[in-house]
Amino acid sequence: MINKVVTGPPAALEGLADGMTLMLGGFGLCGIPENAIQEILRLGVKDLTCISNNAGVDDFGIGRLLQTRQVRKMIASYVGENAEFERQLLSGELEVDLIPQGTLAERIRAGGAGIPAFYTPAGYGTEVGEGKESREFGTKMYLLETGLTADFAFVKAWKGDTAGNLVYKGTARNFNPMMATAGKITVAEVEELVPAGALDPNQIHTPGIFVQRIFEGKNYEKRIEQRTVRAAAE
């Protein structure tokens, strides 16, 4: 029986080196690979290109890697909640490729599917389209966008089995499934690790064929990025 389990983050990140391109799942702080990010921080690897929807917040998620200057370039769709990310972008300290969110998702999916490029109307006529090939289909203009891949893809799942099959929970699913297909080495950290065969095949979101290493994570904070509550009744 295939067994892809490793003992923890140090073994899961073996081979990670300066200058590599990483994909990190999550949306805001939801579904981020907390244990993997902490290990990247500990290893101190630098000059990284990170592909993620956003960069967490100042003191959590990828935001921690920005604080330690381990990230050379961000490929993302949203700056929003991270003041340090915004500061480094505006000061020119950080290379940033901002991509429309749907285009980012499709570029990752395409990379994982072995599709080198595709056309999309998103961004045509804006700064997003500068320097890119365009083509008219019907009466509409489209931009040529390339697929994205990475040396490592780090994803977070709710449950996984020893063969690498993954199940995500709710909105924590977000970018994780497509990133899992697009890494040369895909590392999955899960909240619960079960024996192969214990997961209902009909509920599996990422087949184990895409995962090279899996481990059961610990001490998840699962921070809430923006807490919104109703005003107290008078």
UniProtKB/TrEMBL annotation:
<comment type="similarity">
    <text>Belongs to the 3-oxoacid CoA-transferase subunit A family.</text>
</comment>
<dbReference type="GO" id="GO:0008260">
    <property type="term" value="F:succinyl-CoA:3-oxo-acid CoA-transferase activity"/>
</dbReference>
<keyword id="KW-0808">Transferase</keyword>
<dbReference type="InterPro" id="IPR004163">
    <property type="entry name" value="CoA_transf_BS"/>
</dbReference>
<dbReference type="Pfam" id="PF01144">
    <property type="entry name" value="CoA_trans"/>
</dbReference>
<dbReference type="InterPro" id="IPR037171">
    <property type="entry name" value="NagB/RpiA_transferase-like"/>
</dbReference>
<dbReference type="InterPro" id="IPR004165">
    <property type="entry name" value="CoA_trans_fam_I"/>
</dbReference>
<dbReference type="InterPro" id="IPR012792">
    <property type="entry name" value="3-oxoacid_CoA-transf_A"/>
</dbReference>
<protein>
    <submittedName>
        <fullName>3-oxoacid CoA-transferase subunit A</fullName>
        <ecNumber>2.8.3.5</ecNumber>
    </submittedName>
</protein>
